[in-house]
Amino acid sequence: MKSLLSLVAALAVAVAPAASSVAATPKVCAECVRANMAHLASAEMRGRSCGTADENAAARFVADQLKAARARGAGEGGAYLQPVEFRLPTYAAPPTLEVGGQRMVQGGEILTLEPAPLAEGPLVVVGLADPAAAAGRVAVYDAPYDPKAVDTFFRAGAVAVIVPAPESVVKLWVQLAERGPGGVEVMGAETPGARPPPRTVVFARPETMVALHGLEGQAARVAAPRGAPGVRTTYNVLGVIHGTAPDADTQAVLLTAHYDHVGVRGGVVYPGANDDASGTAAVLEFARILGAGKAPKRTVQFALFGCEEEGGHGAKYFLAHPSTPLTDLVANLEFEMIGVPDPADRKALMLTGWERSTLGPALKAHGASIHPDAYPQENFFQRSDNYQLARKGVVAQTISAWPIPPTYHQPSDDLAHVDLPFMAEVVQSLVGPIGWLLNSDFRPEWNPGMKP
Ligand SMILES: [Zn+2]
Q: What is the Å distance from ligand 1's center to 309 Cα?
């Protein structure tokens, strides 16, 4: 039997935090969340495409909200906007495949996504039984597209690999043909020459594949000449609320989301309400609540990234130029697509990489409506901006609702398809736990062997 004293003590422990947190937990302003999302996903924002005037206008709007929330600017000299310049390679002319007097053109018979400027050699039809036959040649591999097989031929020394276009590529044929050659360079964020040289993979239509068999042995040439690169600017929006502890800044918590989306395609605006105006609105709401209340013990940093959709340019730059040294971050929570509940669980959010660290269980124990990632096979932990920070050692994880809603990257990703009451509820469930994290000494850790 327990002593009376320990029983009383146990009751006090059990009751006290719950009582005080109930009384002290600030309320989410559902209307603020809705209004911020509505503005970001509005027609005038035109889908906030990476590096456009629309995206830049969205950045200024987000900065204004952080300022109104009484967060300070955390960029250089106290600025809210951190400019990120990047170079976008272009084609001087559409890529072509020339072989045996025939000329096939990008968007017509062929499609190549990130080719080298020039690849030439004799055309050879190859199979996995003898990959070495591809060495120094333009290899035709006439089997259903398999990146691993394609990789085998490049390892064997192929200069280019031609494969039948898979259904997923055929569907987006025209859209993909309008794209540049890839290989964006984020200025000031990468070591030049650090990336591997481009590989020329050419997707061909079925009738083109048939024609290529008849041209084996002929000289083949895939040309993708480059034009002058386009220079664009995106912005990260950075804010900070300094904590009250003497060492507050060296145990900061970073809250992040991305505010860009995919823009206008074929004259149709893709509003990106769920992806990721929802995450941005959540981070802004946490800023509003934290700015309105008593400052927490720990410092909280806010970063809203630009150009996530085009390869995470904003996050890449932030890693090279963080608003606080990465070693001063105890945790990063990324908010990505939290507006459409998963039909499998309409009450909660998921935390990617749940089993990797002690963060998720601790937040859940303090009332967060979060649970483990229900789609580990999709590798969502690796697919958001959090991963770049996690690779640097920061316990960085993403909170999402339904990661694969039917509105994903569709014009229907608008406010009408976001479940606002659900969002208000799950964001509310995080206010207390985030407040707890900011006022505790708890340091989340990677579980043994789980650090990426
Ligand atoms: Zn997206």
A: 5
**Residue 261 alpha carbon to ligand 1 centre in Å:** 6
Q: Which of 196-200, 231-235, 407-411 has the lowest mean pLDDT?
A: 196-200
| Fold annotation for 22-87+231-439 | Aminopeptidase (3.40.630)
CATH match of 96-223 with 3.50.30.30 = yes
Q: Tens digits of per-residue pLDDT, 15-41?
A: 444 444 445 789 999 999 999 999 999
CA of 194 to the centre of ligand 1 (A): 26
pTM: 0.83
Distance from Cα 317 to the centre of ligand 1, integer Å = 19
Numbered ranges of CATH 3.40.630.10 in the chain: 22-87+231-439
Residue 239 Cα distances to 74, 117, 247, 286, angstroms: 5, 41, 18, 12
- Output the pLDDT for position 207: 94
- Tell me the two tokens of residue 183: 């290989």
Report the separation in Å between the CA atom of 271 and the middle of ligand 1, taken as the mean of its atom positions: 11
**DSSP class of residue 131?**
G
CA of 127 to the centre of ligand 1 (A): 36
Report residue 335 as tokens: 């908010």
Q: What is the pLDDT of residue 192?
A: 62
Contact 68, 290 (CB under 8 A): no
Confidence of residue 14 (pLDDT cuts 50, 70, 90): very low
> What is the amino acid identity at position 33?
V
**CATH 3.50.30.30 spans which residues of the chain?**
96-223
Q: Which residues contact 99 (CB under 8 A, 6 or more apart)?
A: 123, 138, 212, 215, 218, 219, 220, 221
Tokens encoding 70? 């009484």
Residues 270-316: tens digit of each pLDDT: 999 999 999 999 999 999 999 999 999 999 999 999 999 998 999 99
Residue 368 is which amino acid? A
